[in-house]
TrEMBL record:
Name of the protein in question: Type-5 uracil-DNA glycosylase
Biological source species: Streptomyces milbemycinicus
Region entry Disordered, spans: 1-22
Family: Belongs to the uracil-DNA glycosylase (UDG) superfamily. Type 5 (UDGb) family.
Gene3D superfamilies: Uracil-DNA glycosylase-like domain (3.40.470.10)
Amino acid sequence: MNTTEDPEDPAHPAHQAPGADTLRELDERVSGCRACPRLVRWREEAGRIKRPAYREWDYWARPVPGFGPEGAALAIIGLAPAAHGGNRTGRMFTGDRAGDFLYAALHAVGLANQPEATHRGDGLELRGVRITAPVHCAPPANRPTTGERDTCRPWLVQELRLLRPTLRSVVVLGGFGWQAALPALAAAGWEVPRPRPSFAHGARTTLRAVEAEAPLRVFGCYHVSQQNTFTGRLTPAMLRDVLRSAAEAARL
């Protein structure tokens, strides 16, 4: 499949995402997306060049789908896969230090069966939690453009729609994720107030469902990037506190 930036192209996420009736089908469609030429070039180049420590790896080098069970009550929304983390392993937050930090906290609060995430097939299971991102391809310098975010949005919208019957809380990691998540939540069936709530670590807001469904609790948390965790801006205890609150809201 060639890359396409044309929203009228049948291969564009705007057409591909709404047709996915299950999370498994959505994940398969996400994995084949080539809508953003800059991201396609970058993720594939990272897979060819590789880091010396991973030269024996066969990089995934495709869009990384969400991870976690269908019927999840809690969603975690990040930013985008890392070039030598999720882009290498094919699973969200797997194979890098940000993932080490996140999964250790999830395990500590009882939302994962183990604290490590090294590769697909490592036995990791999430308990009532689905992890996803507003951008599914690794971007240069970990910075997707707003256009790439918007092109990728239909995947997140459909994922949230499919989770809506069971989803009760969301943790959003970082300001970029927050700005991407709120419009996606609105498109997926929740009422986002105007003006939109501002991002902050510890921010909390409740979104009413458009239809007669339970409200959604949304929690803000600093991203688990090394620039936050190495400097102490985000500590393990801070992350665990947010995850516990979100799990309680989701009744996990």
